[in-house]
Design goal:
The chain is α/β, with parallel strands linked by helices. Helix content is 43%, strand content 21%. It contains ten helices and eight strands. An eight-stranded mixed sheet has the order 7-6-5-4-2-3-1-8. Strand 4, helix 3 and strand 5 form a beta-alpha-beta unit. It is elongated, with a radius of gyration of 48 Å. It starts with a strand and ends in an 8-residue tail after the last helix.
């Protein structure tokens, strides 16, 4: 009885490089993954099976080569161009190609039909039926797009179907026990012992530890002490700043209260005085002048417009008790002149109508009326 287990191993550096490329590109990206494969055969004897054989197929991803753009080594129909593949790989050998990868955004972890066609044609072009496809997809993990979630999967074809295979990211915690060497191996060569004894004084202390390690540890302790001292100074300055801000706020409040007391009128509440100081002051001279000039035209004295820009008849009805003859004498002179001019025009118009005789032509009447209309009624200050 035989079993086949396929596993993909990728180092943290390679996966981190792929993630960095994915999050720093404006669009989707793709490329080739390179490395080596290893196959092991293990025999296990159990109570039920005497010939239990297990095949371990491990794919080690060690490097990736990025393409400059999407679809650089295949056309729109998914046909692979071998010369473009060799150009992208440059000095890399096609025998080291383990497959290709694709980086997408906001999509599902599944191969599209076009990716399946490209993968099948790439297997035929490279003459390698064990190629894998690495898919990396990222999605927003927060509503404000401040955190992203990245998922990765490796697909391998089994006939016409594509299945996911397990991926292991190698780090120090996953190394096996035999990968660590705690003690150096013994060497009986006299030349080796003499060479080590000659140069060990430069690198090792009397207890056998490295000198550089002790120097680095001493520098680290000094930096930590300096950092603690700086943190204490920063904490002291921040607390002093908080106390100063509280004192400044109290002084500002006291000054505002004292200023309001000095400016408050007798018999008027402080709140109403504050509200009156915040309200915009009216130009009483302008309001009085407009009333004198346009007593029968409220639209000329309004300051309110609707959404269409049409003035609304909303004006001031307050009597400001201003002596117009003493404060605004030009306004009275202009009003009297306008009144006399208006009366004279009315008298002329009435006289013109009464003195019309049959000998005057229609053109002469129009000319006289046009002459009266040419007079300007605009106020002059």
């Amino acid at each position: 009885m035989a079993e086949l287990h396929t596993t993909v191993r990728v180092s943290g550096f390679v996966l981190g490089s792929l993630m960095f490329q994915h999050f720093n590109s404006d669009s989707d990206a793709e490329g080739f993954i390179l490395g080596e494969t290893k196959a092991e055969e293990r025999c296990k004897i159990t109570d039920s099976h005497m010939d239990h054989v297990q095949y371990e197929h491990t794919i080690h991803i060690q490097k990736h080569v990025s393409c400059c753009r999407l679809g650089s080594f295949y056309d729109s129909a998914g046909e692979v161009r071998p010369e473009e593949v060799r150009r992208i790989l440059a000095s890399e050998k096609t025998e080291n190609v383990l497959g290709w990868y694709k980086q997408r955004r906001n999509t599902d972890q599944r191969m599209t039909f076009k990716e399946q066609v490209v993968h099948r044609n790439l297997r035929r072009a490279l003459r390698n039926h064990e190629l894998v496809f690495l898919l990396l997809t990222s999605t927003d993990a927060s509503a404000i797009s401040s955190t992203h979630c990245l998922e990765y999967s490796v697909f391998m074809s089994h006939g016409s179907q594509y299945h996911k295979i397990p991926v292991l990211v190698g780090n120090l915690g996953m190394l096996e026990q035999q990968d660590y060497w705690r003690t150096s191996t013994c060497c009986l060569s006299s030349s080796y012992s003499q060479a080590v004894k000659k140069h060990s004084v430069r690198f090792f202390t009397s207890d056998g530890s490295l000198k550089e390690v002790s120097k680095v540890s001493s520098m680290n302790d000094t930096l930590q002490a300096q950092l603690r001292s700086t943190c204490k100074d920063l904490d002291h300055s921040e607390r002093s700043l908080e106390r100063l801000l509280v004192e400044v706020s109290a002084l500002q409040k006291a000054v505002a209260e004292k200023r309001s007391q000095t400016t408050q009128c007798p018999g008027e509440p402080q709140e109403s005085q504050y509200l009156n100081s915040r309200l915009p002051q009216e130009n009483v001279l302008l309001c009085t002048a407009m009333k004198v000039l346009f007593p029968d035209s409220p639209l000329l004295r309004t300051r309110v417009l609707n959404h269409q820009g049409v003035p609304l008849p909303e004006f001031c009805n307050t009597d400001h008790d201003i002596d117009v003859s003493g404060v605004l004498p030009p306004i009275l002179a202009y009003r009297d002149a306008q009144s006399r001019r208006r009366k004279r025009r009315e008298a002329l118009d009435t006289e013109g109508v009464l003195t019309v005789s049959g000998s005057e032509t229609e053109d002469e009447l129009l000319a006289s009326q046009n002459g009266n209309l040419d007079r300007s009624n605009s106020p002059v200050f």
